[in-house]
Structures are given as C-alpha cells and as structure tokens.
Amino acid sequence: MAKVTMGIFVVGIYGALTFYLGWGAKQWLVAMKWFNYPVLYWSVLYVIAFSIVIGRIHESLKVFSIVGNYWMFVFEYGLMLCLVAQIVIWLTPFNNVQIIGSIAMALLVFLCIVGSYFAYSPVVRNLEISMDKKESELSSMRVVVASDFHLGVLSNKKHLQRFVNLSNEAKPDIVFLAGDIVDDDPKWFVKEGMAEVMKSLTATYGVYGVLGNHEYYGKKIPEFVEEMDKASVKILRDETIRVGNAFIVTGQEDITNKERQQLDALRHTDNLPWFVMNHTPNDLVTPSQEGVDFHMSGHTHKGQMWPNHYITARVFELDYGYKLKDQMHTLVSSGFGFWGPPMRIGSRSELWVVDITFR
C-alpha cells in the first residue's frame, strides 16, 4: 500500500511539473500566435511525457521509447529554462514574452545539439600509472577500460563500432567492460547483430566484463551472458581468474544482486597484480583494504547532464576519474554510451587507455 501511495505521489508531482512546463511553452506559443488547438496540445504533451512508459509495453512501440528518451532532456532543461524565463519576465524590465521565450527555445535547441555531439563523439582519456610488479612476468601493459554502453535503440551498433575502432587503435593488452553493456534487455543487441562488431575487439589477453544494474533490470542475464560469449567477451560473475603469470582479474556481481559474494571470498592466493571490476563504486574502502591494485567502475555517468554531477559527487566517494586510494589505483568512467536521452552536458562519452608500468 505504501508503494502504491508513493507511486501516486511521484506521478502527481511529475504531472504537475509537466503542466508547468507546458504552461510556460503555451505562453510563448500564444505570444507567437501559434496556439490554436488547446485540447490537442495538452493531449500530445502528456502522451509525450508518458511515452517512455508506453514504449515499454511492447517492442513494436519502440518509437515511444525514442520520444520518451528525448523528452527526458526537454523535461530537465525545459523546466530550468522555463523557470529562468519566468523570473526574467516577472522581475526585470525585459518582459517581452516573444523575445524571452524565443531565446529560451533557441537555448534548448542549442543544448540539444551540443549534448548530442558530446554523446556521440567519444574521446580517449589517457592515464599512466605505476604498480607493484609482485610476481608478474610483465614489465608494462596497456589496459582499455569502458563502461555504461547501454547498447540498445539509441546507443546503437554504429556507436559500438566507434568504441571498437578506438580500442583497437590503442592496441591494448586487455579490455575491461565495467557493466551496463546493454540497456536492460539484450534483444536490440541481438536484433542489430552487435555481437559481430563486439567480436572484432582485439586484445592480447582478451576482453572481460561484469554485470551492471541495467542487466539486472532487464531480467535476461542468461541470454545476455550467452550473447557476450558469442561476442568473445567473458562475463565474470563473482569470479576470479588468473591470466597466465601476468595478473589476476576479479569481476564482482553488481550491488543490485543482494546475494553477491564479498570481495574477501574472491581473493586469489597468487601474489600477482590484482584487477577488480565492480560496476557501482559504492565501496572503495573494502577493496583498498583487501589489497586490490586496480579497481574499475562506471555507473555514475558523471551525472551525464549538468547539474546532476553535483548529486553523484555527494553520493559516491569517487564519482568520476582517477584516484589513488592508499595503494589502490581507482578509476570511475563516465561511460561510453548514455542512459535515456542521447545527450551529455558537462560530461563526455569516453574510454580510458591506461598504461601501467610495473615497478
């Protein structure tokens, strides 16, 4: 009963904010003499506002999912611009609704274009670190780290190909995919034949991945793991493996899985450099105490769209970038793809190329 009440409350708040945004847009449309069909206007607005829910009913309604993802961007930035525009109109001499509204709409379109560019034009982040050699046969190695592809309808096969191209250009020794590889359901990964693209990744010691929260949301983990296997990606589920005489790799289940094993149960007895992937960077203390050498995460997207970064920065000890915690090298990626709107403001789609020198 409490969940139902909370759900009604959230939908009510969302509906009210949608009305406020629609009311603000209506003022501008009236001023421009473009507002003629109020019933149609409000009906279309609320269908768009709830299209992300409609799109989940059946895959044939994919267009609603696409519209809903773009709406998330319009909703967040539209509310901010609408509020600023109202303040300017009410509290300053500049009260021309036509001009102020047109400026706000132009800014929204500009942010949409810039955000799309940052989302679909990934960059390579380079990092150089040194690490205790221990008993490794290696003197150096190159690692590619990426996360949060959310492969599906909008983060598509073409975007995956960008990753493969950039990763292969780096000529890595190993590739780590730190969770949220698909966006909930792997069906679009299968339908678009993305396994063949992923399979073309090259790395001396192979490609390894872990589950993220969205793989759990999709509730098709066996199918996902099978598809990754076809794509030559080894998904580690609370597993630790030894890669030759070079290093140890551990892949933890995501924190969404309440039955996942603790890290101390996944320790390896060999004295080799220890790499750990954990999709959500919820706990950096435990791995640093357990002697992990390199810890990799994603999940945060660096907020994806400003000012969301201020929230993730308060939730996580490290919500983005590199940090040396005690003796542990820690890396949190903002992700190669995106969730929801195919836009990034204040963040960038990326992969990391990490050059490690063993002392």
Can you describe this structure?
This protein is an alpha/beta fold and 359 residues long. The protein is built from 12 helices and 12 strands. The strands form 2 sheets. A 6-stranded mixed β-sheet has the order 1-12-2-3-4-5. It has a 6-stranded mixed β-sheet with strand order 6-7-8-9-11-10. 41% of the residues are buried. The mean pLDDT is 95.
Task: Outline the secondary-structure elements.
Blueprint: H1 2-31, H2 38-49, H3 51-54, H4 62-91, H5 97-120, E1 123-131, E2 140-146, H6 157-170, E3 174-177, H7 187-191, H8 194-198, E4 207-209, H9 213-218, H10 221-230, E5 233-235, E6 239-243, E7 247-251, E8 274-277, H11 285-290, E9 294-297, H12 309-315, E10 321-325, E11 328-332, E12 350-358
Parallel strand pairs: 1-12, 2-3, 3-4, 4-5, 7-8, 8-9, 9-11
Antiparallel strand pairs: 2-12, 6-7, 10-11
List keywords for this structure.
six-stranded mixed beta sheet; 359 residues; 43% helix; 12 helices; alpha/beta
Note the gap between the termini.
59 Å
Give me the secondary-structure category. Answer: alpha/beta
Q: What is the C-alpha radius of gyration, as a whole number of Å?
A: 23 Å
Beta-strand segment tally: 12
Low-confidence stretches: none
Shape: elongated
In a nutshell, what does this entry contain?
The protein is of the alpha/beta class and 359 residues long.
